[in-house]
Amino acid sequence: MTEIVVTDCNLNSVCERIEQHCCVDDTSTIKRHTNTGAKLWGRVRSKLLRQKLDPQTVQSKNWHMDVIEMNGIKVEFSMKFTSRDLSLKRTPSKKQSGVFGVKISVVTKRERSKVPYIVRQCIEEVEKRGIDEVGIYRISGVATDIQALKAAFDANTKDILMMLSDMDINAIAGTLKLYFRELPEPLLTDRLYPAFMEGISLSDPAAKENCMMHLLRSLPDPNLITFLTLLEHLKRVAEKEPINKMSLHNLATVFGPTLLRPSESESSKAQITLASDIWSHDVMAQVQVLLYYLQHPPISFAELKKNTLYFSTDV
To answer: Which residue range or ranges hold the Rho-GAP domain (predicted)?
Structure first.
């Protein structure tokens, strides 16, 4: 039995995960027709799409169980749907202990580190055995595994390294994404969000370069160092694109909204019916901001801090 959460934009990755977790009994004496696998996954995709379009299923918060069978092969799975807004919505924890939902400056000060331990360990594990994984960071990890890792990092469990080495790599990648999504404010901060949106829209290359570098220098040191660490990691992942199929643009699409999407303000709470085209425009801009930095030559923290050039976005 496979449990999955389906969002508005990850149907393909869901089907890939179902296929990965499905066990077929090879000892069966049933003679199966050719192309059974392809036809079966076609049925799975059709079932997910029909359920996704069903208003009652979409509005339900419960898991929906289903079975699809063809030529002796049976797929059992349960699923529930979350809207695109909810899947990307910043949902900080209310607690102040642990690491999830706690300001990054508080965590790094407590750990006496420049980059949070959870970020360093997840990156290390992904680079050790997940960098060649097809769809790394795009394919969702099992929700229960991610929650187990979250609890372990929050409790600072002694056997966290053992857990990481035994855990499915997509769960580790999902834990890293969840950490950034649950920060009280985005890694690139609420304060600078409007400036990032203005800077990425500048048409003059030199003006854009000056603006985007100045914005990085304006970040608090823990945020900046963590961002640069993640940036170099994602570049290394993209170097394996022929194997893992994750281009810079794919990675920017996954991480852009997570690192930039603003905290939910009181004013935005009242605008629940915000037009979808405005929402989509914001997401595209968030993706473009991260893509800009991913495509940029290596950025050094020391060089950024050494450069005292100040630039106004009012051009």
So the answer is: 102-301
Q: What would you report as the CA-atom Rg of the chain, rounded to the nearest whole angstrom?
A: 21
The CA distance from 46 to 5, in Å, is: 16
Give per-residue pLDDT as tens, 217-247. Answer: 999 999 999 999 999 999 999 999 999 999 9
Q: What is the pTM of this model?
A: 0.72
